[in-house]
Automatic annotation (TrEMBL):
One of its GO terms (molecular function) is acyltransferase activity, transferring groups other than amino-acyl groups. This is N-acetyltransferase domain-containing protein. Keywords: Acyltransferase, Transferase. The keyword Membrane does not apply. Residues 11-167 form the N-acetyltransferase domain. The keyword Acyltransferase applies. Belongs to the acetyltransferase family. RimJ subfamily.
């Protein structure tokens, strides 16, 4: 798929590249972030970051990728990431995101979700974009609501994390 860069007011969205591993590991290895993400191990190591960058580089080369992740780049550093996964062609995908704690509360993710939603509907020609959040994650829920995502319901024991079954809230935006 064509790899693209999207400019925003405080950051750029761009694909992962070699060299991102150290800032990725540094900024994502934070329990306050990881507790809200399903698939990220804690601690998040440089080895994890290398595997993730490699996986994304392979995925960008596919004509029909199943996921597409952008780096949230400030001054060349990976300060966060936003992407879509479980892409089903011309139909739907799940969005997910995180941001380094030192950048929280500046409106960055509100803008990033807006941009990825346009990317999903226009470039991937999706009809439905959805996200899961834990009930306690008010910041993420507000970020979705600001961008046209609607609360669709509670999925009981939908997530399994740290040997516990957790409820998920489901939000979706349809075109
Ligand atoms: C969720 C997260 C991405 C929000 O990013 P952010 O750039 O700080 O969010 P923004 O500054 O764009 O704020 C978006 C909205 O959330 C609100 N918000 C931000 N942090 C908040 C907090 N801690 N508590 C309550 N509301 C909060 C903002 O006020 C804003 O809403 P408003 O405009 O109605 O006031 C960030 O906190 C994060 O990375 N958390 C850990 C990982 C995570 O939860 N990922 C999502 C998993 S579903």
């Amino acid at each position: 798929m064509k790899v693209q860069t999207i400019r925003a007011s405080q950051f750029i969205l761009r694909p992962f590249k070699k060299g991102d591993e150290s800032s990725l590991a540094k900024n994502l290895n934070n329990k306050k972030i990881i507790k809200n993400l399903l698939l990220i191990p804690s601690p998040y190591t440089l080895k994890d970051a290398k595997e993730w960058v490699d996986k994304n580089l392979k995925e960008y080369k596919k004509e029909k990728p199943s996921m597409f992740n952008f780096v949230i780049d400030v001054d060349g550093e990976v300060v966060g990431s936003i992407g879509v996964r479980n892409i089903t062609e011309h139909h739907m995908a799940e969005i997910g995101y995180w941001l380094s704690e030192s950048y929280w509360g500046k409106g960055i993710m509100a803008e990033a979700v807006k941009l990825i939603t346009v990317f999903g509907f226009k470039e991937l020609r999706l009809k439905r974009m959805y996200a899961f959040t834990y009930p306690s994650n008010i910041a993420s829920q507000k970020t979705l609501l600001k961008n046209g995502y609607v609360f669709e319901g509670i999925l009981k024991k939908h997530a399994y994390k740290n040997k516990k079954f957790l409820d998920d809230y489901l939000y979706a935006n349809v075109k």
